[in-house]
Amino acid sequence: MAVVQVKDGVHWVGAVDWNNRYFHGVTYSTHRGTTYNAYLVAGEKYRALVDTVYTPFSEVLVSHLTELVSMKDIDYVVVNHVEIDHSGALPRIMELCPQAKICCSRKALEPLRKHFGDQGWEMHPVKTGDVLDLGGKTIRFIEAPMLHWPDSMFSYIPEDKLLLPNDAFGQHLASSHRFDDQVDNAILMDEAAKYYANILLPFSALVERKLREIDELGIEIDTIAPSHGVIWRQDPGQIINAYQRWATGLETPGRVSPEIVVVFDTMWGSTEKMAEAIAEQLSAQGYRISLYNIGKSDYSDIIREILEAKAVIIGSSTINNGMLPSLSPLMEELVGLKPKGRIGAAFGSHGWRGGAVKQISTTLTDAGINLVGDGLAIQWVPDREDLEACRNLARKVGSVLASRAK
Ligand code: FEO
Predict the structure, then answer these.
(1) Which atom number of ligand 1 is nearest to the Cα of residue 166?
(2) pLDDT one-digit tens code per residue, 386-399
(3) Of 3.10.100.10, 3.60.15.10, 3.40.640.10, 3.40.50.300, which CATH number belongs to 4-248?
(4) pTM of the full structure
(5) Helix, strand or coil for residue 245?
(6) Is CATH 3.40.1000.70 the right assignment for the domain spanning 260-405?
(7) Ligand 1 first shell, C-beta below 6 A
(8) How far apart are CA 290 and CA 287, in angstroms?
């Protein structure tokens, strides 16, 4: 994809990765690929490259840069975040412009050295409020620890009211276009929500605080250019407001999202019968349900659904005194992501001996989800009475949700 002007003197020089299908190992499915955004900021006196790209795309970055500038004329490289999808091309860039000075947060110094060794690069740690004057254009730094790593920071160009927040406000969305007004808005917001759910959810309190801090600093924002996906130029308020809602658990106005997510795995169909009875009862009560057989589903898509759901109900047959291992990645992710403010319940059928329901209940509690009831474990194939017990569990979940809505 070609170099694109974002503002006068600011160009997108990154790379589009159409083929990426997983991020962070296989924890996050990226059905629509991704981009690694980097930006060349040119002042009257100096030029700064803000972030680089993932290592395999180093030459794409170099080729984009050389369309605009001679490599020896790059004076600064701003490393907003050390993770390799943004700093992977740094050694190649520094090889071509060894004169450049690196600006990064103090926390980034050690991981940069650990990733790339002692290269003799001139590194300048910066902190919130520090300013890099490029001549007629300045870059103001704002530390943003845990959005997404402790080293993360935002760069802000006040002359253009342009925020370069690295991972924050990103989406894993490959596109031939660079701006929000050029892509389907429903797809864009869905990918932004999936990104928030799978990456930023556990840091929601920090997201809230950072949004408040930006407000208190009096930073005016006309455009947000993240390091993944498209640039928010038409309506940056759309993504800021969405972050505020996702961080605080507020509903998205107008979105018909599932209110209750039911996930199960089943050995011989009994737990599936229970899942269906629970889902049907809640649906009859007027709730919007998403029902997932984990063996046929992508768990990072489920996590995206949970972002805007009010309840999470999980069921499993028992194997080796615990839940089926197919549920483990989802459950482990939930414990890490801690989707607070939701209620949950566990259910499952077992043969000779149970254990799955107890394990699911414990894990849901560890994930910060408030349990409704002690979990419903039945033995063998659910009969009429057992299915009524499933419907009763659903009624309990429904009545807790109804009382919360008052
Ligand atoms: Fe896109 Fe935390 O890296």
Answers:
(1) 1
(2) 999 999 999 999 99
(3) 3.60.15.10
(4) 0.94
(5) helix
(6) no
(7) 81, 83, 85-86, 148-149, 167, 227-228
(8) 10
